[in-house]
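Consortium newsletter contribution from the modelling node. Members have asked for a concrete example of what our holo predictions look like. Here is one, prepared for the phenylalanine complex that several groups have been discussing at recent meetings.
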Amino acid sequence: MRDADPQPVRLTDYRPPDWLVDTVDLDVRLHPQATRVVVRLGMRPNPLGRPGAPIVLDGDELELKSVALDGAPLAGAGYAATPSSLTILAPPQDPLVLTIETVLDPSANTKLMGLYCSSGTYCTQCEAEGFRRITYFPDRPDVLAVYTTRIEAECEEAPVLLGNGNKVDSGDVEGTTRHFAVWHDPWPKPCYLFALVGGKLDRITEPFVTATGKEVELGIYVEPGKAGRAGYAMDALKRSMRWDEEVFGCEYDLDVFNIVAVADFNMGAMENKGLNVFNDKYVLASPETATDADYANIEAIIAHEYFHNWTGNRITCRDWFQLCLKEGLTVFRDQEFSSDQRSRPVKRIADVRLLKSHQFAEDAGPLAHPVRPATYREINNFYTATVYEKGAEVVRMLKTLLSEEGFRAGMDLYFDRHDGQAATVEEFLTCFADANGADLSQFALWYAQSGTPQVEVNGHWDAAARSYRLDVRQTQVPTPGQPDKQPMLIPLALGLVGADGRDLPLVPHDGTNAAGSVLVVSRPEQSFVFRDVEARPVPSINRGFSAPVKLTTNLASEDLLFLARHDTDPFNRFEAGQTLALAHLVSASGLAPEKTSAGPPSGGGTALVEALIEALGASLEDETLDPAFIAQVLSVPSEGDIAREIGSEVDPDAIHAARRSLRRALGEALRPGLERAYGRHAPDGAYSPDAVSAGRRALRNAALELMASTGEAADIARALAHFETADNMTDRFFALSVLAHHAPAERDAALDAFYQRFRDDPLVIDKWLALQAQIAEPETLERVRELTRHPAFSMGNPNRVRALIGNFAAANQTQFHRPDGAGHLFVADAVLELDRRNPQVAARLLGAFKSWRSLEPTRRGSAERALRRIADGPGLSPDVSDIVARSLG
Ligand code: PHE
Ligand code: ZN
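And here is the predicted structure:
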């Protein structure tokens, strides 16, 4: 067991390991309750470590059987062993071989870290610190070794045996019912990338020829009977491999690449070298069972894990503080891949939506932390939106600042210089500085300072001087542990839009720091002046969301309306409408905003709604626009976005009501256009998951929902027909959710029909659970409580828990934050129960409380009581105790 209240780990305390491991030879004899692991570690003292240091290895819940040094059994006096560490007290200061035998119980492993069983399949999860649950080892990413793994199991129980690297041997164990396979991975790697799998699995396989003509065998392994649903993942894998060659010059480096889909997994997927292990939700898809969003996620996550082969595996992290080095960069890479495969503007809009809803919320609350944290108590709690999504934004800004070519030159140098190493963020940035002759010292603050920078931009046209001036002010808000901050380097992409809707040429005045069309903001206050501006333009600021900041401007509603119709930058065209909607929703929620993005001085409620309807109506009728883009334009800001904009004293019921009535107003006012869009985008053939077809469905379904939000009988009937005639999960599930939210009378029958049809399909049942947890009515809590006792639900499966309880807590603001506190209490008790079984999943669920301080007093009080109840819980895991302490801190 680990210490429940461990000392914080600090970045500044880093020192190199005292001992290095060159080779790891594992012999794993799989057994459901008693798996025996024998490891032979080829070790030597690290010249950079402390001379004469003992060998200290990490362990977790291990049972030690024996230790030998250079083949000779080591007596008890030679070492000190506990379940959490093994110390070789006075080792010779020479290369040596340490042999350790341990036993572990995979079927008792409910944390799903280390070696565990998922529906009868043996699998492993080692990141971040799970390898120490398989054997004693220096469990840190800067110890790189070459692994050879022999796996042995009952032929019947596990006919398929997989490891990292290439298979070098296999056969039956003579005189037994067992067999074995030996896998060798020639690339030195940290232990968090180790994996093995044993089970009864079906497989699909395809060849891939790399850019230089090497043949790779690709395999996807799934539960028996599910191979028919792995085709899209295979297709996405091949496209990812080609794309990485073409765009980053990265080629695959083993003879095989395997993916295994398992039903019980704490996260999305894991990039183990040559053997990715996936949550099956991100592998399995068929038109009948997966939505367009599922297909898009599969494509993105298959790509993400594959891209880690270079950004994460070939170059790994020196320590866990550098997590963003692999994650932020790899998210950026998968975003770019999806942008190239689909619509770039729509992908950008979706990514920014996600960033705002998850990362901005994190940055605004007690769990805020830098992209590269300086301290942690539990590393599992730092797989966050900040490390991943904001980390990707920082890489994107680097590209904006250095241009396409400069960015690629930096990446090339990074691969060249650090291949085979465990690197740091500083080393990464130095490659870009060196390749471009750039000074990135101020830019590096993006890794160190937490919180979302606020940027205020006021534009002024000087008719006499024929110039346009933008006054920019940046403010860094205090965040936990960071009361004072320095000004940052902020790239603001800019356009000055003329009356005809076209961009004016940008002619910077002397001394104005603009690189092309990007303002480079570096000081707390700074002005940028452009010459030869004959008429008052409308500035389009932070185009493409070039910097992850909270922007406020002096644009009037008419200006936003103009941008919503004319901006050539699709992101800002979308954003202009969102800003108008948000301004209306904040005031309609009946509370004074702390600061609204749109500051239309005279814009009262109705004027704003009229402007918004006009803007959305124009987009809806514009046949030159991509339907997927129009669907994004039509979707009003989320309840969470509105709450964040309001900032304090938040009343989720008022927000919900305001949002609902805006959608009803849109449904009524835009009805003719919505009806036309619904008709125009009716399916014209068999389902295909491609982006264009998905975009048409997205718009058609958005229209369906806006019309149904009026509650008119004809609209509900349309939704019911849509549900009953759908030939794919996207349409069927969308219609079901429209019914669930807008048609109380039709709801139960539809939910039941859906359940009966898909009852044997856990991934579809997750959708059914999630939807019921999201209904904004007081009966929901009792329904969720009942569903926890439904045979389809299990506290042991992370996907079920996230679908039901996770969605209740994170995607049902009115019911989670019920004024009577029952929602908070329910989630608190679920966290406590779950913590005994799976601390990582429990801690993540607890993250739903992250914005509790911005609630109005009654709800704030009940959230605090729930948090204190958790804090007082007996025997909390380090995961939950860390989150609860920071949430209350
Ligand atoms: N490294 C994985 C990814 O982002 C995420 C992960 C972390 C999976 C920890 C499991 C455990 O690709
Ligand atoms: Zn990753």
